[in-house]
Amino acid sequence: MTVTLDDVHSLFHLPIAGTFFTIVDRDQVTTLRMVMNALEVDELVVLKEFGDTRDFHLKMSWLRKVYQELVDAGRYQVAARAYMLHLVAFTDKSGVYIYVRYLSLFSDLDIPCWAWEVAALTMLYTALDVASRPDTRQLADYLSLLRCWIYEHFPHICERKTQHCAAADHCARRWKARQILSEGVIEYRRRLNALTLDDVIWAPYTCHRNHLPFDVSLYSGYVRWKSHVARHLPERCLRQYESHPQLPLEILDTPVAVQQPGQCQDGYLEWFPSVSHPTVIPSAAASDVPEPSSIKASSDPPPPPPPPDMFRVDKENNINNKQT
Q1: What is the pTM of this model?
Q2: Cβ–Cβ < 8 Å for 16, 115
Q3: What are the phi and psi torsion angles at 98 (to 5°)?
């Protein structure tokens, strides 16, 4: 399984095809004027927000407050910019601050739409690639997409809460974030390891197709945003499209509908563990660590002590001489 263009399209109703864009960093004066003109807020208010964030950032709570004030004042055109920035904003690793430079994309809402969906998915793929490395401790960028994708496909992984929304609204609106589990990462890993085929909702958007027709989400190839390039391979996760999983070496001409969980091509389940990580905590890893009671005393002589630190010895001698 993976996050696909179909997931982004159904969750946020973002356009798949559109105009590519490039974000340009600006100096403080230009950035200040851009925020003042786009959101129609006073200069002192923006300067205070920059001072609170210690950079050219906006807090998500501040942006929601500005949005509500604009809606209450009936300034819907300006409020739409704040809403769009909050919807598609890429946050830093704190998950609280939004980069101001993306606001320039909403200065004119009448221009042809940008390829937001491709940009969001590419950035998420890049962030997940970085997060899978051993020296990475945090995950940033478009985490709203990842969170809502988990809510849709894995109802037993984390706590989730639904809220009322219209049937034609984007699917992400029906989810409300909950607090993380008090047990921490270990509990999430345990739940991931305990997943079965029946615990996964493979095609959660079936009922939503009446309001959002299936578009070009089956595109297979490269997606790009700025210098980031990733591969989008829907043929590797056909079950998410209610089709029969097949080996990737075979060309899919006519998808076969899935009749029951676990149905797949012969040899697929034997092939899949060879190219993937079926469990988060391998069972062999725990058995490789010896228990304290099972550690036997060695008959080999103890290793020689390390040589003395000459710098420390000289330093101690100098101190003693000074005291004398």
Answers
A1: 0.62
A2: yes
A3: -105, 140
